[in-house]
Amino acid sequence: MRSQDLLNIAKEYGSPVYVYDAEKIASQYERLTSAFKKVKHLKLNYAAKALNNISILKFMNSLGSGLDTVSIQEVRLGLLAGFKPEDIIYTPNGVSLEEIEQVAALGAQINIDNLSILEQFGTKHPNVPVCIRINPHVMAGGNSNISVGHIDSKFGISIHQIPHLLRIVENTNMKVNGIHMHTGSDILDIEVFLYASEILFETARNFKDLEFIDFGSGFKVPYKEGDIETNVEELGKKLSKRFNDFCKEYGKDLTLAFEPGKFLVSEAGHFLASVNVVKQTTSTVFAGIDTGFNHLIRPMLYNAQHDIQNISNPDGKARFYSVVGYICETDTFANNRRINEISEGDILCFKNAGAYCFTMSSNYNSRFRPAEVLWYKNEAHLIRKRETFDDLIRNQVEVNFNTPSETDKELIKP
């Protein structure tokens, strides 16, 4: 997208506003499928939690993607967006057996990550095929909050519990049609990923009726110029060969599955904010903008870096700014960052704002969540309206404190 297109969107829909480039999403999808073109059966299940706007889900469906979900609400969104139940995989963590049973009734693929629920579900529903999430005890990911495959993780069934797992499967006579792992996000070293894959292959040998092996995702995308990223082409070449060799050993052509979220939508996203005030102190120049961590929490939660560009002054001289929000706590997006000279009223563009940005937004400080726009075929399409005050109070129930109840009257009698 051109900067002028973004400026036009900010002018038409106001700021702050999220903008997503459909062409970039499609190219990332094609890049990943091309990397694994030598695999006979490949299934990409888009991780809905990254960006769950229903128009984005429909676009993913049009590309041929399946859907990775973590809640029954995401499953229902997927069905509403047109995904077939069999193209939806449901991988919750710590949810109730009742929710899992409700999702099973909808026809989605169940993925279970703990022995307790596995035994309960297998006992009650032995004929419903399930996938099992394994914890390979391999540390991967760019931040401790997004590294989920290590030994102390709450996610997955430990590889050291495989004997117990197998006893449950045998005793319940349940059907296991898939094996799954997810090591973490922002994977840098594909050799670590391949090492974890070997653990998954070894585990898979214990199950004779598999239909797929799901390797999760977590591919890193570049967040700034010159930043490193996961080499998916090299990973595709190495893992495809190993997967095909395993299928020959297994005696069956299995499906290789991934659950990309950030990889598909992160770089497609732009977050536009307007500069309210430029404030200079003794040592810092602040650019205060019309948003905060209520709209974009990743820099504060994950120490994530989003490149920030002043698209209103693309040729201006670069100066150092601390970009801050309007929340009543510290909400610093960037410290001492070189950005083209900023004036009040300028539009700043946050890059890599497609994944885990709007979906983690809130109404903190009673602020409205922003609009979302999809740039599709060189046109801007509004896919979520900016919230209003009516949206803010829609589900609140007021208590009438002006009319004393009969109990209150008794209490205040002299």
From TrEMBL:
<feature type="binding site">
    <location>
        <position position="298"/>
    </location>
    <ligand>
        <name>substrate</name>
    </ligand>
</feature>
<dbReference type="GO" id="GO:0008836">
    <property type="term" value="F:diaminopimelate decarboxylase activity"/>
</dbReference>
<dbReference type="InterPro" id="IPR022643">
    <property type="entry name" value="De-COase2_C"/>
</dbReference>
<dbReference type="Pfam" id="PF02784">
    <property type="entry name" value="Orn_Arg_deC_N"/>
</dbReference>
<comment type="pathway">
    <text>Amino-acid biosynthesis; L-lysine biosynthesis via DAP pathway; L-lysine from DL-2,6-diaminopimelate: step 1/1.</text>
</comment>
<keyword id="KW-0028">Amino-acid biosynthesis</keyword>
<comment type="function">
    <text>Specifically catalyzes the decarboxylation of meso-diaminopimelate (meso-DAP) to L-lysine.</text>
</comment>
<feature type="binding site">
    <location>
        <position position="356"/>
    </location>
    <ligand>
        <name>pyridoxal 5'-phosphate</name>
    </ligand>
</feature>
<keyword id="KW-0457">Lysine biosynthesis</keyword>
<dbReference type="InterPro" id="IPR029066">
    <property type="entry name" value="PLP-binding_barrel"/>
</dbReference>
<dbReference type="GO" id="GO:0030170">
    <property type="term" value="F:pyridoxal phosphate binding"/>
</dbReference>
<feature type="modified residue" description="N6-(pyridoxal phosphate)lysine">
    <location>
        <position position="49"/>
    </location>
</feature>
<protein>
    <recommendedName>
        <fullName>Diaminopimelate decarboxylase</fullName>
        <ecNumber>4.1.1.20</ecNumber>
    </recommendedName>
</protein>
<dbReference type="Pfam" id="PF00278">
    <property type="entry name" value="Orn_DAP_Arg_deC"/>
</dbReference>
<dbReference type="InterPro" id="IPR000183">
    <property type="entry name" value="Orn/DAP/Arg_de-COase"/>
</dbReference>
<dbReference type="InterPro" id="IPR002986">
    <property type="entry name" value="DAP_deCOOHase_LysA"/>
</dbReference>
<feature type="domain" description="Orn/DAP/Arg decarboxylase 2 N-terminal">
    <location>
        <begin position="24"/>
        <end position="266"/>
    </location>
</feature>
<comment type="subunit">
    <text>Homodimer.</text>
</comment>
<feature type="binding site">
    <location>
        <position position="302"/>
    </location>
    <ligand>
        <name>substrate</name>
    </ligand>
</feature>
<feature type="domain" description="Orn/DAP/Arg decarboxylase 2 C-terminal">
    <location>
        <begin position="18"/>
        <end position="354"/>
    </location>
</feature>
<dbReference type="InterPro" id="IPR022653">
    <property type="entry name" value="De-COase2_pyr-phos_BS"/>
</dbReference>
<feature type="active site" description="Proton donor">
    <location>
        <position position="328"/>
    </location>
</feature>
<dbReference type="InterPro" id="IPR009006">
    <property type="entry name" value="Ala_racemase/Decarboxylase_C"/>
</dbReference>
<keyword id="KW-0663">Pyridoxal phosphate</keyword>
<dbReference type="InterPro" id="IPR022644">
    <property type="entry name" value="De-COase2_N"/>
</dbReference>
<feature type="binding site">
    <location>
        <position position="218"/>
    </location>
    <ligand>
        <name>pyridoxal 5'-phosphate</name>
    </ligand>
</feature>
<keyword id="KW-0456">Lyase</keyword>
<comment type="similarity">
    <text>Belongs to the Orn/Lys/Arg decarboxylase class-II family. LysA subfamily.</text>
</comment>
<feature type="binding site">
    <location>
        <position position="329"/>
    </location>
    <ligand>
        <name>substrate</name>
    </ligand>
</feature>
<feature type="binding site">
    <location>
        <position position="356"/>
    </location>
    <ligand>
        <name>substrate</name>
    </ligand>
</feature>
<dbReference type="GO" id="GO:0009089">
    <property type="term" value="P:lysine biosynthetic process via diaminopimelate"/>
</dbReference>
<keyword id="KW-0210">Decarboxylase</keyword>
